[in-house]
Each structure stands twice: as C-alpha cells, then as structure tokens.
Amino acid sequence: MKKFPDSKIRWGILGVGDVCEVKSAPAMNKIDRSSLVAVMRRTGEKARDYAERHQVPKWYDDADELLKDPEINAIYIASPPNAHEYLTQMALAAGKPVYVEKPMARTSIECRSMLTASSKAGLPLYVAYYRRALPNFLKIKELVEEGMIGDVRLVNIRLYKPANPQLVAKTETEWRLKPEISGGGYFYDLASHQLDFLDFMFGPVETATGFAGNQAGLYDANDIVSGTFRFKNGVIGTGSWCFTSSDASAVDQTIIVGSRGQITYPTFDGSHVVLETDRNGTERFEFDLPKHIQQPLIQSVVDDLLGTGNCPSTGMSGARTNYVMEQLSTV
C-alpha cells in the first residue's frame, strides 16, 4: 500500500456534517504533520459556512472538484453510509487513501466493493471505529491480555434505550432511522461500535445468528435485535439491543466473563471500567476522554500513512463488523 513518508497529510472531507463539528475534523489540525485543507458538501452554502467557522482554507460543493485538488492527499468521508461505497471508489480512483465513517457501508457487498477498490488502487482504507484507540477500551484489552480474568469464556452485550432517546446527535433528516440510507437504524449506528471493539479484542467472529424486528412501528428500521455469535478463538458472545424500552429498563452494559473474574463497562454512557476478580475483589478505573473523540484514531491513521505507526481500524476489520451485523439482524 502506498504511504507518504517525509510528507504531510493534507485532508479533504467529503460530506462535511454534524460528526465533523467536534468529534473528528478539528483534530486534523491538532495532529503533527496533518492539516485540514478543504471540505465539501452538496449544499455549497453549508460547506462555506463550515469552512468559515472552522478556518478551513477551501470549500467545494462538488466531490469531483475536491478530489481534483492537488494539495489534498487524503480523504475523510463523513457522509451517511449510503454514499460510502461510491465516494470511496471515487477517492481511491483519484489516488487518495480514505478514512471513512462507520459503519463502513450499508451491506457486506458494498464493503467488499470498497476493499476491491482499495486493493486495485494500492491505497489504504481505514474505518472510523475510534474506540479501538480510546484509553478506556485499551485498558479493557490490556486487562484481558494480561490474564486478569483468566481464560475468557463469554461476552454479553445489553443496550436498551427508550424510544426517541438522545442516542446520537440530532440531524436534519434523522437518516439513521432510514435503512436505505443507514443500513439498519440505531442497531447499525450503535451496535457497530460494540461489535467492532470485540473484534479488536478477540479477533474475527466465526459464526453469528439472530432475530430482529420492528415492534413499536415508529420508523422503518428494526428497533430490536437479539443474537449469538462465536469467535474463531472459541469465545461465545450474546447480545440484545432494544431501542423502545422503558426508562426503567434502560441499560448500556457489556460484561466479559472469564475463569477468574469479569470486566464490566459501558460503551456510550460513561468511560469507566470495572474489574472484579476472585482474588482481589472489585476495582474501578476512570478515564478522561479527548474533546475530539476521534483524535487518537486519526493520529494512528496519520502515523500509518507517514510510515511511523499502524492504524488498528482498517477496511478489512470494518467489513467484518458489517458481516456480523447482517447475520444478527436479517432474520
């Protein structure tokens, strides 16, 4: 894969929107040998507004024009998932590596198409599963790898939220609730983070199966999913996701169970980690997270492109997460 040693990563963003306000794009100017050069949105006035508010030198209302800009040598795709495949193909064909928002795409077929484009272009493809680089999640991985809970037996995910909760930042069109745009509602938007981190922890899932439905009928996407999955290393997983629960039932908890203890943590509602072991009882770890939550992962992308490090979230790993979500939610 082509890298950029002894250079600087000069970013262009396709689909600059809500996620770029705080979570991601501002970090590009805070990282050494990285800068945000241009942004694009189909509504030019909105692209110009973002550029002016964030002191970005250039803005475009056409993806082709941004991709032709010779100053830009890396692309961040921050559009909804329905545009990920074709924008990734366009960027790679223009000779520019891609950092794409999660979920990687709407379907596994689209993910494979993106991987093929990356291989054909000889350019890397990264996915914005930023929890792989956050300190609380790295602590969980460290505790498991150091054998603090012994041999891992199973993992259980529970994410229950009432209807219309403040799950994610509000958008103009609530595209997350439209499967033709998002791929699969809140499950694809939120569970993807949880499942991707477990892939980071335990490696690929070997098989998965589940059930999904739309019980409340509030929107087109599934509002409930439940299933089981088995990693190639033998760890068994279970998960249940409900987005129309009562307030009393609301929970965001993942438990990793081992032969000598367990680790409990939230994915969205906090950054603490609780370790319980037969030998030492209960320990709680608290973590401060960066203002720009994607900054540690974007740092790893820059390092990878410059040949000074490696990014833990690639197109290959992102595609695996899409596959698992499909297996859990298509019945």
What does this molecule look like?
This protein is of the alpha/beta class and 331 residues long. The protein folds into 2 domains: 9-128, 3-Layer(aba) Sandwich (Rossmann fold); 135-289, Dihydrodipicolinate Reductase, domain 2. Helix content is 30%, strand content 26%. It has 9 helices and 14 strands. It has helices at residues 44-53, 63-68, 84-93, 108-121, 135-145, 179-182, 185-202, 295-306, 315-329; strands spanning 9-14, 34-40, 58-60, 74-77, 98-100, 125-127, 152-162, 205-213, 224-231, 236-245, 251-258, 261-265, 273-277, 281-285. Helix 3 runs parallel beside helix 4 (108-121) and helix 7 packs across helix 9. It is globular, with a radius of gyration of 20 Å. The model has no long low-confidence stretch (mean pLDDT 95).
Under the CATH scheme, which class of the largest domain?
A: Alpha Beta
- Could you tell me the number of beta strands? 14
CATH superfamily heading of the largest domain? Dihydrodipicolinate Reductase, domain 2
> Helix fraction?
25-40%
Per-chain topology:
Blueprint: E1 9-14, E2 34-40, H1 44-53, E3 58-60, H2 63-68, E4 74-77, H3 84-93, E5 98-100, H4 108-121, E6 125-127, H5 135-145, E7 152-162, H6 179-182, H7 185-202, E8 205-213, E9 224-231, E10 236-245, E11 251-258, E12 261-265, E13 273-277, E14 281-285, H8 295-306, H9 315-329
Parallel strand pairs: 1-2, 1-4, 2-3, 4-5, 5-6, 7-10
Antiparallel strand pairs: 7-11, 8-9, 9-10, 11-12, 12-13, 13-14
